[in-house]
Design a protein that fits this description.
This protein is mostly helical and 120 residues long. The protein has 2 domains: 36 residues, no CATH class; 59 residues, Orthogonal Bundle (Arc Repressor Mutant, subunit A). It is built from 5 helices and no strands. Helix 3 runs antiparallel to helix 4. The longest helix is centred in the middle third of the chain and has 18 residues. It is found in: Mitochondrion.
Length: 120
């Protein structure tokens, strides 16, 4: 069942794909820059938000960020690096977490000082 789970592309993957299709869209001098149709189409292609999670009803998303970061690395540890549904957790934590948090957490994981266990 989990192998049939559709995981959307990350924002970065969608931007690269869109830029390959029409590189002129990213330049402000392009006539398509002010086109409503082009802007609506790119909004549909690029917009993705993490689904609502009832465990985290508060406005601040620190706990949700940390939980999804841990869930992603736990999923990779338990299921393997190439298990595609783990990408969902990565998409969500990259949506919520500031980059400097994840960089620090990556350093802590490498040093073995990260406060969570990934093997359970």
């Amino acid at each position: 069942m989990a192998s049939k789970f559709e995981v959307p592309e990350t924002y970065g993957e969608r931007v690269v794909k869109l830029n390959e299709e029409s590189p002129a869209l990213r330049h402000p001098d392009s006539p398509d820059w002010f086109s409503r149709e082009v802007n609506e189409k790119s909004k549909e292609q690029l917009a993705w938000a993490a689904p609502y999670d009832a465990r985290f009803p508060q406005v601040r998303k620190q706990r949700q960020c940390f939980s999804y970061y841990v869930d992603f690395h736990r999923c990779q540890e338990l299921m393997g690096e190439d298990y595609k549904p783990c990408k969902f957790f990565q998409n969500v934590y990259k949506d919520f977490c500031p980059g400097y948090w994840t960089e620090k957490w990556d350093e802590l994981r490498e040093e073995g000082r990260f406060p969570a266990k990934f093997d359970r």
